[in-house]
Amino acid sequence: MKKLIRSLLILSIFVASCNWFKKPPLIGKVLSEHFKNKLYTKFDSVIYDSIFVRKRDSFASHFSNPKVLKAFYQLNGNDPVFVTNFFINGQLDTLQRYLGDSGLHGINPKIFQLEEMKVLLTKLTSNKATDLKQIYPVIADLELLSANAYLNYTNYLRYGIVNPRRVVSRYYINVRRPDSAKMMKTLSSVNLADTLAAVQPKSEQYLALQKAFIAAKDVSTKRVLSVNMERRRWQLPNLGTYFVQVNVPDFKLTWFDKLDTLITMKVVVGGKREKNYDEKWKAYKKSGNINDRPKNHETPLLYSKINSIQANPVWNIPVSIAQNEIYWMARKDPYYLSNSNINVYYKGKLLGEPDTINWTRYPSDKLPFKFKQGPGGGNALGKFKFIFDNDFSIYLHDTNNKSGFRLVDRAISHGCVRIENPLDFARLLVNSPYSYDKLRVQVDLPPIDSTHNSWYVKRMAERADTSKVFKMKSSWFGPKKPVPLIITYFTAWYQNNEIQYCPDVYSHDEQIWAAMKKFR
Fold first, then answer.
1. The pTM is what?
2. What is the b/e burial string over 322-341, where b = at least 16 CB atoms within 10 angstroms of the residue's CB?
3. For the residues 266-276, what does the mean pLDDT come to?
């Protein structure tokens, strides 16, 4: 009896090793039933697997996310998931239709290898194969090209083609990008048609730009629209419906509340960087000479929240301005600092007589001093500084020189954003008649509410008292809740029932267009 059991066990292992009585893989069953062709019942997973792996490895260098695709298929035993699930129900045809229409988004259908996929789908649909050796490579190629095209297409429409933080100079907004977990989830979709429909951009701005792009005949206009459609595909932080936007190339600040505009005003932004900046930067890095360092005052693109207002602000003068401007003005005019209400600090201590400093003893790139301009009429920040967290010492502020707002090209600051109507902006931020009257009095303006006139009378009396030196002091105010702020860059957008355009002041369009080259 034991010998019989042993023999049966050996026989069962042998049969299993030879794949006898093994059910055909699901792809074989699906195709045999669909075509009513018994050929597919002989589908051999081992042979297909070897062909698939070889194809996958050969395609890897041409795929955008080869590691994700490899992980997806390893998880699925290298089965032809897309062909198995989406060939019979026509969803591979749906995928190809979407890919064929990608030109409506400014994306060239050729980058998805659409023509190759069409040929492969036609071969499989024709059901003319007489030997499975003819069909294995067709299924493997169609599977891999479909999965890759589907993944790329959904990524491009969901997140944009390029990562702006890698392409655009001084772009610091944390845009969401596809990660491996998100891409695996996309590849695991049970309905391609639903996913493809869901990733289509649906915002009013995008659809208006797209409509204009489709209708445009002029090549340069289509280019501008294509770049701005790409910007609208980027996944920005959730701003909500109540936020402040500074659009750098339009030199405009707008405060949005849902569909309403609470306020809009002109702004002055950072100056353009020097011509041939990249080449000059390389030369500077090589020489190490501060005088070789090219200037770049472009306002950083960022997202933050306005959390406070400083009335009668102190200007903490940035090192770059101290080295390139303040230092040379002080050398030229020994009374420049005191006349400009600029205090000098050495190791954190205020120097009493900065006019006596012998500036020729110090090279401009190794100054041991820090500079602060006190509050008052000559302060470069004017009467208000609007503060938000960032790593670049950037803020919105008033200015003591209003002439810049009359210019057409207002890219002339050191990087901060000067706003045209700071008092109106402050009123919206504090959002309190009481606080607003307090703020007005601090900058020597009478309150709106006459019951607060005593504050103003006292302030004016202090200023008029010649027996005491009146010292201007900074004071702080804050919004009831921090207000989201985005400093962004659009050269085309939808407004007042038409597309608005503005010049590409920092040449960001050129940077994005160059990065999109192989996709258009």
1. 0.89
2. bbbebbeebeeeeebbeebb
3. 95
